[in-house]
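User: Please write out a complete single-protein record containing the residue sequence and its fold in token form, without commentary.

AI:
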Amino acid sequence: QVQLVESGGGLVQAGGSLRLSCTASGRTFSTYTMGWFRQAPGKEREIVAAITWSAGSTYYTDSVKGRFTASRDNAKNTVYLQMNSLKPEDTAVYYCATKRVASAFTFPKSQYEYINWGQGTQVTVSS
């Protein structure tokens, strides 16, 4: 089983940047597609970005395309989410998770296709 710990959240002004990290324990981390999700108060958890194990392919939800970049360093068991040009609507708790091995999709959008969730890191963007 993989255990994930997110970090890097904080308070930033609109237009600013943050880089989130998700560090994993477990020898099989490098084989997983990783997803980044966020959940704002009163809203469903939604996928933000995902990255394949080799970092050869990435997915971004439309609202973050061109602003967010997912990357990974398998040697460090870490996945990153670089967030630029942040907007108040990006305010949420951000989570990372591993995609279910049995999932039929390269980048499933549903949170139920992911397991091994981290505890989340709060991102607050002020206007």
In short: The chain has a mean pLDDT of 94.
